[in-house]
Amino acid sequence: MVQYLRAREYRGVMSQETKSEYDVIVIGGGPVGENAASYAIAGSDRTAAIIEAELVGGECSYWACMPSKALLVPGSVLEQARNMPGVKEIVGDRELDTAAVLARRESYTHGLDDSSQVDWAEGAGIDVIRGHGRLSGPRTVTVGDRTITARHAVVLATGTTASIPSTPGLREALPWVSRDATNLHKVPERVIVVGGGVVACESVTWLLSLGTREITMVVRGKSLLSGNEPFAGEAVAKSLQDKGVRILFGASLDGVDRPDARDTGYGHIHGGPVTVTVNGESVTADEIVVAAGRRPASGDLGLESVGVDGGTSIEVDDHLQVRGVDGEWLYAVGDVNGRALLTHMGKYQGRVCGDVIAARATAQQLGESRFSASADHGQIPQVVFTSPEVSAVGIFEKEARDQGIDVEIVESDIAVAGSSLQQDNYTGHAKLVVDKTTDTIVGATFVGPGVAELVHAATIAVVGKVPLDSLWHAVPSYPTVSEIWLRLLESRR
């Protein structure tokens, strides 16, 4: 299904073929690898190369964050308009212009052409090498028949790939995975979605807004978004069910049958109708979307050549250095190390890693906090762009109690002037998990329209360990949804 454009495939590469050594070699050209390379050589004469087998810019730019958000925003805007007097009368029962939405999506993914990303890398002094890179020994990487050596560091930033369960007939049915769902070219009328996590819930959200009329979710567990506070998954499930989505909880996918499966390319319907058996019941749809998790892309990186097992998450320390490898030269950042499977956290790790490499290259000590990744230890912010949105940071109540923290729960419905002004029929909820011993927030969750913009304030409170008494003096502007912070603080007086 490789149908993207590598417009700069040969530009500059021939002149690089004589280079057999760089200061820093990064395998994986997504935003995580880009950050690691640029930070490692910033303000110096050090050299860096990025090795990429697909598109420079990686999963986020072409198949994940950017296209998914481009598909989700129009539906969110339409929903807000339908709940805004003076606007809803104009909108009426009109639906989205699907062609226009997909065209805007294409403007962000550049039609799967990575020219602009290559331009950025070259402008930053980073060589781009096309091909599959793998370790062949200490500080040594092979790309095809070419061998390159790193003076200071090799960084692994290969991310993850979609997992497809071994359900009989599922792989043979050529199901959509996240890459297909974000790059859809035709909206299927009937869809079966396997999974209940972030990718599944967001995919269902934009499929609904684009006109899919029948959606069945097959969820192994008892809730959606099971990694979040329970009320978040409950709110999203109710919203989807109210819009006609059928959610089968505690469901087992027993078998899949698609006699006319065809490889038609990313985002095109892969053949004829597909029938699945779920707990003994048959369900037929035009397409099946598998959103059943991700696995690290570490199986073909040559890790065995340096004494590390491949195929699993690569264990690293807080300098992002791979454990078990001597010499302070091998690093792994982003999803491939399994610490936090989010683009913004991978980019954060890339920045830390790049700073560590630069410091070691100039014999600096690593005592400063910027040389140690700490934000992915219980301080991770995340947003699920469903309707309603879910945003959270830190740890949840159950996790806090399991860790033995003396927990206080502070929560409130989001019902302030700002939320009522944002749209009619606004409903939302907020919850803080407080460590009573330190009087600081260790976790926060917000559910409701537009709450993605609330989470950074909570992130600062969690990372900065700001006492709740001090938060009394962080006065929220009126009338904004941020006034919920005042209501939360008032609820514990």
From TrEMBL:
One of its GO terms (biological process) is 2-oxoglutarate metabolic process. Keywords: FAD, Flavoprotein, NAD, Nucleotide-binding. It comes from the Bacteria. InterPro entries: Class-I_Pyr_Nuc-Dis_Oxidored (IPR050151), FAD/NAD-bd_sf (IPR036188), FAD/NAD-binding_dom (IPR023753), FAD/NAD-linked_Rdtase_dimer_sf (IPR016156), Pyr_nuc-diS_OxRdtase (IPR001100), Pyr_nucl-diS_OxRdtase_dimer (IPR004099). Residues 22-349 form the FAD/NAD(P)-binding domain. Binds 1 FAD per subunit. Transmembrane segments: none annotated. FAD binds at K69, G133, D335. Residues 380-485 form the Pyridine nucleotide-disulphide oxidoreductase dimerisation domain. Disulfide bonds join C60-C65. NAD(+) binds at G195, G196, G197, V198, V199, A200, C201, E202, G293. GO terms for molecular function: dihydrolipoyl dehydrogenase (NADH) activity; flavin adenine dinucleotide binding. Its cofactor is FAD. SUPFAM superfamilies: FAD/NAD(P)-binding domain, FAD/NAD-linked reductases, dimerisation (C-terminal) domain. PANTHER family: DIHYDROLIPOYL DEHYDROGENASE, MITOCHONDRIAL (PTHR22912:SF151), DISULFIDE OXIDOREDUCTASE (PTHR22912). Belongs to the class-I pyridine nucleotide-disulfide oxidoreductase family. This is Oxidoreductase. It comes from Rhodococcoides trifolii.
